[in-house]
Amino acid sequence: GAALPAVMTSLLCQLLEDAEVLEELSDKYCLNTELLITASSSIRSSLATEGFHDLGTRLAVRLLLPHVKIGSDLRITANLVDTLEHHSPNSDAEANSLLSLCRK
User: What is the pTM of this model?
Assistant: First the structure.
């Protein structure tokens, strides 16, 4: 599906920014944020269509969590909250697993 290209594009953008090859276009538009959100949505969508919505949620959370920081783009935090808010864990173990990811 679309998950692999979206994730690879997001990772490539992060590498280019870290190497200072790619500059941010403006204060209002952050390419890295847009690509992260797109990758997160693509992961969830691709895996949900295959019946693995729980795995999609977990991977999306793991992708977004390192980018949730004080002073970071609030759209990443909002996307993470939206992902968790709309997920219904199938078991207590799955709920605990998601909670433990967020506590780290």
Answer: 0.76
Range name among 13-27, 43-57, 62-76 with the lowest pLDDT average:
13-27
Burial (0-12, 13-18, 19+ Cβ within 10 Å), 40: buried
What 8-state DSSP symbol labels residue 56? Answer: H
φ, ψ dihedrals at 10, nearest 5°: -65, -45
Dihedral sign of CA atoms 36, 41, 44, 47 in order: negative
Is the Cβ–Cβ distance between 57 and 44 less than 8 Å?
yes
User: Tens digits of per-residue pLDDT, 44-58?
Assistant: 998 988 888 889 899
CB-based contacts of 56, cutoff 8 Å, min separation 6: 43, 44, 45, 46, 47, 48
Going 6 to 9 to 12 to 17, the CA torsion angle's sign is: negative
Alpha-carbon gap, residue 86 to 55, rounded angstroms: 14
Q: Using CA atoms, how far apart are residues 10 and 63, in angstroms rounded to an integer?
A: 10
Q: What is the rounded distance in angstroms from the CA atom of residue 38 to the CA atom of residue 41?
A: 5
